[in-house]
Amino acid sequence: MKIRFVEPGNRPYKKTILNYFVYDRYIRTPSVGLNTLATIVKKEIPDTYMYSEAISKIDMKDVSDADIIFLGFFTFAAIRGYELADYFRRNTKATVVLGGLHPSMNAVEAAEHADYVMLGEGDETILPLIRAIAEHKRPDFKGIAWSENGELVSMGMPEPPINLDIIPDRKLIHNYKKMVGHLTIWPQVHASRGCPHNCDYCALVKHFGHRVRTRTPKNVVDDIKYSIDFFHKNRFRPVKDLWITDDNFFADRKWAIDVLNAIIDSGIKYRFNIQARYEVGFDDEMLELLKRAGFFELDMGIEFIDDESFATYHKKSTVEDIEASIKNIQKHGMSVRGLFILGSDNQKKGCGKALADFVIKNHIQGTLIQCMYFVPGTPAYENNKDRLLHESWDKYNGNTVHRPKNMSPYELQLEHIEASKRIYSVKRLLKAWISEDMVHKVLFTGEFFWHWSIRSDLKKELKNLPR
Ligand code: B12
Ligand code: SF4
How far is it, in rounded angstroms, from Cα 11 to Cα 196? Predict the structure, then answer.
């Protein structure tokens, strides 16, 4: 049996010098989730391999005689995902299966482009599905859905997997080793799944659930070691930075402490960044451990800079707490990257400038700004779906895609551009070179050009937005 995994790219890989420096224009980091599933399958089916359009073209000749083709994607890559799935169904004899967050939460839509849609996480249902297909049996068990006469037949969500101790085999991804010299590709490790919170707009908590499930500290450390080795062995790579991508690493405090101690005890000398809610900024013991383990940056899902917006979307935060938390993290010698949403129902014209002022005032040393969007399956979507401008999913990557309450879509896009322009001004670039440490000089320079490319895309979209 021959199995191929394919990760569609929002902007499929194209050979260009820009790939070395500019990250978002050509999304570069391959999916850890799909790589995890390929690793599980490879243990039973030797002829298993993966292509990610983040880093290479798909070898269509190789994929064309596969027995099963699995495609996995998030919302921003859904249009390309469906295009590839349709192509494979037309031009190969393979059974085409879609999975991942977007197909799982939009099964009715996804089932129109596939033989099967896999719901939820897939780790424990993928091998039973392969066996059923091999035996020409209907996979009528939890976690599988398909379309029959235009209607969705769904077997329901599967139980979330508990044993997550799988180290993704990076060698299974075509050309990955060759591409790790690029600065825009970095090692990633995902150590836990699930979050106890309930933010209205969050698709992740719908997909992974409230129950926090963790990998053993040893397995996490082994993955970190392997990942660092994969990136540095026989490769020149000056930048050392590994991203722990968990949505709420600190939700299980005891486990988080065990993982940090395991990193320290392992003697790994590397630089890490990690996603975090603001509460960790009040946990001095955790901050000290993070610093000792080599963490230099906390990526904080701040989202809004006004308490009214937090209340509207049930995000348990206050601006006062966030600012105090940032100060304490900085006091412990780490920097903060802010992840923000613009365009809440409480925001008005001028929110772009206000966001930039907040970032500058609090010395936030990196940002990701996203215009508000609502993903099917979330409470925010149910309450606001009639306000979405379209379902061109490839534009759900920072652009305005909804009608904000207090400004027009065009105006919101301008606010996003304004925030980015103020934060990443030439004046601030020069200032970074005078006053920041070497790591942040380099980071700010990279982000300066990255935001330049983001703004150029945001400007292109302006003509399509209602004024
Ligand atoms: C790493 C990451 C990135 C990386 C790489 C993405 C990649 N190739 O995977 C980079 C930095 C490039 C990135 C960029 C962006 N990202 Co991002 N990113 C993440 C992050 C933090 C971790 C992804 C991860 O490793 N997850 C862990 C693995 C285990 O989960 P998984 O991939 O979902 O896979 C599991 C299951 O879903 C399932 N599965 C997956 N595929 C398949 C396929 C089959 C067939 C089956 C059966 C099962 C299956 O099995 C896996 C194991 O159980 C997620 C948050 C998150 N927790 O997922 C956000 C996330 C994916 N990003 C998000 C966003 C919005 C973006 C940006 C648009 C941000 C921006 N404004 O620029 C950009 C998109 C850029 C573009 N080109 O358009 C959103 C997407 C929301 C959505 N509805 O899709 C997320 C969910 C964050 C959030 N808080 O909402 N991102
Ligand atoms: S805290 Fe983060 S991961 Fe948890 S529900 Fe809210 S947005 Fe989602």
Answer: 33
pLDDT digits (tens, 9 = 90+) for 216-260: 999 999 999 999 999 999 888 888 899 999 999 999 999 999 999
Nearest ligand for residue 129 CA: 1
Q: How far is the CA of 249 from the centre of ligand 1 (A)?
A: 16
Where exactly are the structural domains of the chain? 3-154, 186-464
Cα angle value 47/192/284 (rounded, 5°):
150
Residue 314 burial (10 A CB sphere; 0-12, 13-18, 19+) = middle
Distance 300 CA to ligand 1 centre (A): 17
CA 294 to the chain's CA centroid = 22
pLDDT tens string 89-106: 999 999 999 999 999 999
Residue located via tokens 């591409």: 179
For 272, the enclosing helix (H) or strand (E) is: strand 272-276
* Domain 3-154 indexed as CATH 3.30.2010: no
Topology of the domain comprising 186-464: TIM Barrel (3.20.20)
Residue written as tokens 């002022």?
A: 357
